[in-house]
Prior knowledge:
The protein has five helices and no strands. It is an all-alpha fold. The protein has one domain (17-76). Helix 3 packs across helix 5 (51-76). The longest helix is centred in the C-terminal third of the chain and has 26 residues, at 51-76. It is elongated.
Amino acid sequence: MDKIRTFRDTIKQEYKLVSVKDQQTESDNIWNTLHGFGISKEDIMKQNLSHEELYNIHVAVKTYQDCQKVLKGLEEY
Length: 77
């Protein structure tokens, strides 16, 4: 039960929504995250996505990566 609470609290802290203005300041971080996941900037640019759509992809990738870290931590626990 404590593991579940810890996981839930971690997720709540990590994924607070930010405004579109805040999203624009994180542009470099978005590209770094996507590149690290194997998605090239060129491939994304071909899709002609809005900044909000790009940010949503970034959040999905970060969520996946962070969940992997948490699950790995639970395995070691």
